[in-house]
Amino acid sequence: MEALNFVKLLSYGAIGLGCILAILAYLLLREEQRQTSPRKSILNSIYVFMGFSLALSIFGFGAEFWKDSQLTSISEVQEDLDNSRETIERLSGELDEANQELSRIDSKLSSLRDVVNALMEQKEGKVARLKELQPGTSGYSELVAEIQMDLARIDEGIRDAINE
Prior knowledge:
By secondary structure, the protein is an all-alpha fold.
C-alpha cells in the first residue's frame, strides 16, 4: 500500500480520485471478508461506495473527453477567426485602394466639368455674338468665319476634355 502515491493519483483529477476510492472499496471488501460472518449492511455500504467510485471515474473520463473535444473546437474557431481577420485585412486594403481610385477619378471628373463648363460659356458667348450681327454689315463674313473657327476649336477642346 505504501507503493501507491495518492498525491500523484489525485493530480489526475476525478479519474484519480475514483481510482483511490475504488482501491479503498477493495480494501474494505477484503477486510470484511476476513470476518467470520460478513455483515450484510457493511457489504451494502461497500457496494454503494464502489458504485460511487465507479460513477466518479466515468464522470472523470467523460469530463476529459469533453475537454479534449472543446479544445479541438476552440482551435478550429481560433483558426476560422484568424482566417476571417486575414480576409478582413485584405478586403480593407482593397477598399482603401478603391477609395483612392474613386477619389482620383472624382477629382479628374471635377476638373473635366470645369473645363467643359468654361468651353461651353465661350461657345455661348460666340453664339450670342453671332446673333447680334447683321448680315448686311461690312466684315460680316470675316466675323462669321472667325466665329466658326472659334466654335470649331471650342468643340475640339470639349471632345478632348471628354476623351481624357
